[in-house]
Amino acid sequence: MKTNTVIGTEADRKTTIMVEQKDVIRFEEGILGFPQSHGYILVPHEPDSPFAWLQSVDEENLAFLLINPASVKPDYVVRLPQEVANDLKLADVSDGIVLAIVVVPEDPREMRMNLRAPVVINAREGLGRQVVLENASLEIRYPILSEEEQAKQY
Amino acid sequence: MLVLTRKRDESIIIGDTIEIMVVDIGQKEVRIGIRAPRELSVHRKEVYDAILRENIAAKLSSRRPLKLPKLREPAAD
User: Fold this and answer.
1) Which residues of A touch B59 (CB under 8 A)?
2) CB count in 10 Å sphere of residue A63
3) CB–CB of A70/A76 below 8 Å?
4) B34: domain range?
5) pLDDT digits over A6-53, tens only?
6) What is the DSSP string of A111-141?
7) Cβ contacts of residue A99 below 8 Å, gap of 6+?
8) Distance between CA A137 and CA A146 in Å, rounded?
9) CATH tag for A24-55+65-152 (out of 3.40.830.10, 3.40.50.1010, 2.30.260.10, 2.30.290.10)
């Protein structure tokens, strides 16, 4: 089964892509705060970019920007509870794709990512979940660019 | 809000499947045990609220313009 899904990242341009059912990642519990949307697709931002889009196929206007947190914080290690691995049918917890949700404020240089509640995806099974980790030292608002790097942009 | 008084090791049942037990009572803290079906997620409220706020801030309408900053290039040394 194929469905059309509208995605886009530019002001006046809509991009419609064909989505095959097999590419839809099912979030049984939804993303926290958005329980009504269960199907998402993962769209790379650009080739070789650490960013990707999590676009709802249920709601055209619901999308999140995700980032590979290791591209910013190489020592970021996630210990997934076994129940999460079970729910996502991950044979090994290290098989999951771990991505952090990004907040892009008015000034995009101040963008931040949530290390406490990453999105974990089993691409093979098409299952995903936002996992709230027990480790309280993981920051919910972790700056993606250091002040020095912010100063160098543009 | 329903308010009940409980002693240590006493619990409360919500519906047929959720049990909340007072495990220990200290000067300023109580330890609470929760038994609930696996499909129900249990979170500390302040953590839940912070993540909820962050998710709502993260939501992008798909037509929002977005120019992403360049990230640091991997060190090439």
Assistant:
1) 34, 62-64
2) 26
3) yes
4) 11-58
5) 555 444 445 666 777 888 999 999 999 999 999 999 988 888 889 999
6) -EEEEEEEEEEETTTTEEEE---S-TTS-SS
7) A52, A54, A66, A67, A68, A69, A118, A119, A120, A121
8) 19
9) 2.30.290.10
Tell me the per-residue pLDDT of A56-102, one tens digit each, with 9 for 90 and over: 999 888 999 999 999 999 999 888 888 889 999 998 877 889 999 99
DSSP state of A91: S
Contact call for A153 and B61, based on CB within 8 A: no
Interface A–B counts its CB contacts (< 8 A) at 101
Yes or no, beta carbons of B52 and A32 under 8 Å apart: yes
A70 Cα to chain B: minimum distance (Å): 11
On whether residue B68 sits in a domain, the answer given is: no
Residue B13, judged by CB atoms within 10 A of its CB (0-12, 13-18, 19+), counts as: exposed
Tell me the C-alpha to C-alpha distance, in Å, between residue A120 and each of A18, B5, B51.
Answer: 24, 40, 15
Structural domain contains residue B65: no
End-to-end CA distance of chain A: 43
Is there a contact between B69 and A14 if contact means CB atoms under 8 Å apart?
Answer: no
